[in-house]
Amino acid sequence: ESILSGQERVFEDVVEDFSEVDSVRERFEDWKQTYKDTYQDAYIGLCLPKLLNPYIRLSLINWNPLEADCMDFEDTKWFDTLVFYGFKLQETIAKDDDDIRLLPSIVEKVVLPKLSVIAESVWDPLSTTQTSRLVNVISKLGRDYPCIQANNKATQHLLNVIVRRIRKTLEDDVFMPLYPKSVLENRSSNASVFFHRQLWVCIKLLGNILSWHGILSNQMLRSLSLDGLLNRYIILGLCNSGVNKETIQKCQSIISTFPKEWFEDLEDDKTMPQLENLGRFLVSVARTLYSEGQQNKRDFDKKDSRDFIKQISKMLVNIHAMEYAVNLPM
């Protein structure tokens, strides 16, 4: 609060001509229109992003796109002030005019570093809402600003921060308790409630991580989501949770998070190596359902068992584990 309250006083001792973005824009536009040659010789177009940096950083001091009521930075006063900087209606814009790159440069030098701080210090990867908002902001920047690309240093720094934050969550915030199955059979016990809640939290986090598909590389995504979460925690929890309808629902939720593009170029009848454990687990569930359905050991009959096995077969097909799907007991 003290920072926000002092926001208005930052430029109070600055002369009026340089106290606001409007004033700065007006003076430099006058220079460009009146003495265009000297304006270009001084490379003002390249210097302006650095000159405007403190003004824009100040205006973005409480900008947090993770909040529901956060204004899009493109709707702010400084953006409206600069969007047509240096150009007049019906005027031909030269392709080599550095002023064309004013806003993209500001996004690169001010907005991306701000997002890096938010991703590192504010964003909670366990929050689906926050993750969705952060993904949407970065996706929009990538679509609208050509400077936001893989070989850009500011972009690389932001993505590295995101990866580090996810890894920190995997190391510090993910916990999968292990209990005897006899304890978990009592669904109302504290241990069982805690166990299933933790497993659902892991599945939720899996979806949050995979929402970065198209932004993070597939190799990195698979490392974080499959190696770091699915095979390390979730499969362990599934194996310990018994065979029931909820287990099948969990598997469906897991598979629904996988990008379909991962399976488009797979050859033969095998799935990705990182999904072999999941495939084998689904086969074991199907065999257990078939065996116990035949013996009427559970609350569901043979028809229910066949329905569940069909669902498992569909899941195996969805992850391209054809070799497992065709050999399920029916």
From TrEMBL:
Transmembrane residues, as ranges?
none
Cross-referenced InterPro entries:
GCFC2-like (IPR012890), GCFC_dom (IPR022783)
Q: Which GO terms describe its biological process?
A: mRNA splicing, via spliceosome
Q: Which domain of life is it from?
A: Eukaryota
The protein's location, in the record's own words, is: Nucleus
For this UniProt record, give its keywords in alphabetical order, as a comma-separated list.
Answer: Nucleus
Q: Which GO terms describe its molecular function?
A: DNA binding
**One GO term of the cellular component aspect?**
nucleus
Q: Which residues form a coiled coil?
A: none
Instruction: Provide the GCF C-terminal domain boundaries.
Output: 21-233
Task: Give the UniProt family note.
Answer: Belongs to the GCF family.
Its recorded name reads: GCF C-terminal domain-containing protein
